[in-house]
Amino acid sequence: MSIQLHKHAAFHFGLITVMLISASPLDLWYSTAYAQGPCSTGTTNPGTEAPTSSLELQMPFIAGEAWVVGAAGSFYGNNLHCNPYNDYYATDWNRAGDYGAAVLPVAHGQVSYANCDPGPGYGCNIKINHLVSRTGDYYQSHYAHLINVDKVSVGLQVSSSHLIALVGETGTTGGVHLHFGYRRLDGGAYRSLCASNCDALATPQAPQGHQPSRMLTDTGQTGLADFGTYTSVNGRLYLSDLRTGSGWGTTLYVRNNGTVPRNVSIRYYNAAGTNVSTSSCSNLAPSATCSQAAPASFQGAAHLDGAENLSAVAIVDNGTRSYAIEAVPSGTSHGGLGTSARSYIPSNLVNYYGWNSTLTVHNLNPGGVTFNAQLYDDAGVLVNWLSNVPLGPRASHTFSLNGTARGSVRVMSADYTKPIVAGVRHENAGADTIAYVGATEGGAGNFAASLFKDYWGWNSSSSTQETYDVATTVNAYYSPSGSESFNLNLAGGPEIYLGASQVFPTGQGAGRYLVSSNRRVTTAAHHAQGFWALGYPALSGGAYGLYLPWIIDGTGGWEASVTVFNPGATATWVVLSEYEAAGTPVYTYVFQLPARQSREVYSQLVAGVHSIYVEAQSAPVVAVAHATNSNGRGIGYTAVPVRAFAP
User: What is the residue-averaged pLDDT of the chain?
Assistant: First the structure.
C-alpha cells in the first residue's frame, strides 16, 4: 500500500509575491553612531574592542573566498582603528579585485536600516539586528561602503547565506573595501563601549584588551588578528553519512535556487578525512537540478561551495532500502539545521522492536577535533558518555549506539568552538532505513508537517528532546485542526507513539510543539507502515519559501507527495511550483491553507526526478517530501527554507 491515495486536480495560477514580515519594535531598534572626541593619529583608541558574544558569527562573504583583515590601514580591537564612531567592533575587509563581491550577513537576523547616507561617512550601508536566544541579548551588525542597498528592505528576515549587498566604495573611503561593525543592545540603543570621550548615554569603561568576537572560518571559530587572511565558509553546504559499495549507492541532487547560472564545486572526504574526489555542476541554470553520483567504494561526507543560494539532498539506496540526508549550511541555521559546536538528535533506538541506530559525527575543520557524545534514555537519564573522542581533519566517525532502548543524543566538540555535523541512522532488518541530521539548537516551536494515526496502515511517532539541561514542559498540538493538545514534562527525549494513543483522532494530521519559558527543543517525526518507514527532523519556525531538490514519480515504482503545514494562527495562500531537472516550470498548484492545517499534494509529472518550490503568502509554513516504492523503500525529508533571495 503506497502512502498515495489519489491525484489532485491541477489549478494553474500566477505566482504569488511573498510578503515581508512586519518587524516588532524591539527588532527595529537601532541607533545612529555616536560621534566621539578626536582620535590621536598613531595612538591607541581604547574601548573599540568587542568582547566575544555567544552568537556564532560567519565571515560576511561566500564560501571559499579569502579576505584580509585591515589591509587598508583600518584595524579593530584595542589598536589603531580610529573613526568618528567609537565602534564596538569594527574592521575593514580587503582583497584584490573585490569591487562587486557578494556581502552576506554574519548571522541570522532582521534588517533594521538600509540607506545610502548623503555626504561623508558610511555611504550606502545596512544594519541587521540579531537575537541570541539563550541569553536574550540583541546585537547589531553593520555593513558599509556598499554599491547600493536595493537587495534588502527594513523588516526583512535574512539568513547567514542571504546576499544583502555588493562591496563598493561609497562614502568616505580610501578605496574599495567592506567596513563591518558589531554592537550590542545597551539601554535601548545599539552603541559602543568606550573608555573616554563617550556619548551622553554611554558609561566609560576601562579598555578590555584585544578581544574581537570570533568568526567561523575554514579553521573553525577563530579569533581574528590584524592583517590576517581568512577563508569564508559562509554558504557552504555539508552532506554527511554518504556511502557507496556493498550494494549501496549515493546520488547528490543539487538545486540552483537563484536567478542566475552558477558553478558548484563538490569535494568528497572519506572517513579518514582525505579528499578522494572532486566534481562540479557547471553553469547550473536557475531552478535546475544537477545530479552527481558519489565516488565508488566511498564512505564519508561532501562539501559544496558556490552554495550561497543552493539546496541539496543525498539519496542513499541499495535496492531494498533507501534514505535521504538533508544538506546543512555552515553556521547555526534558521530552523535549527546547520553546523555548530553542538548537535542535538532527539531519537536513538537500540534493540527496540528490531530497530538499531548508528551515530555519525563529521569534523568540518581542516584541523583535528575531539568530541563528546552523551546518550540519554527516554526519561532523560544519562546512560552513556563518550568522552574526548579524537576525529582527524574533515574525518567522519560512525559507531553503534548502545545502553538504552529509546532516548536522545547530544554531540559537542570538546572545546565548544569547532563546528561539527552529527546525524543518526535507524535500521530495521524487517523494514526500511531512517536517517537525518541533528539540529544545532532547535526552537521554541517545532513543526512536523505530517503525522499519521491508523491512516491507510500508517502510524507515527514523534521524539522531542530538551536542549537546556533543565526540565521543560512542552505543549503539543496534533490533528488536522490543531485542536487536540497535551503536556509533556521533558527531562531528556521522550517519544510519543500516536498509533497507541487514544487522545489523537484517526487520520493524517500535523504536529506542533510549543515550549514554555522560551526553552528550545528539537523534534523528529517517524512514520511506519509495514515495511515502509519514513523519518525527518521537524522544522523550527517555518519559512515563506521552501525548496525540495528531489521529488521522484512514475519511475521505477516510485510515487511522491509533498505535505505543507501552516503552523500559524491565520490562513495563508500557498503556491507549489514543480520544475523539471533542467529548470523548466511544468506545474503550479495554488491553494489556501487554514491555520494549523496541512495539505498533501501529489507530484503531477509522469516520470523522472523533479524539484519543488513552496511559496507562502502571509504566514510561514513547513513542508516535507514523502516517497514510497512498490518494493518497500521509503524516503522522507524536510524541505529546506529559503536562504538567499538574489541573485
Answer: 78
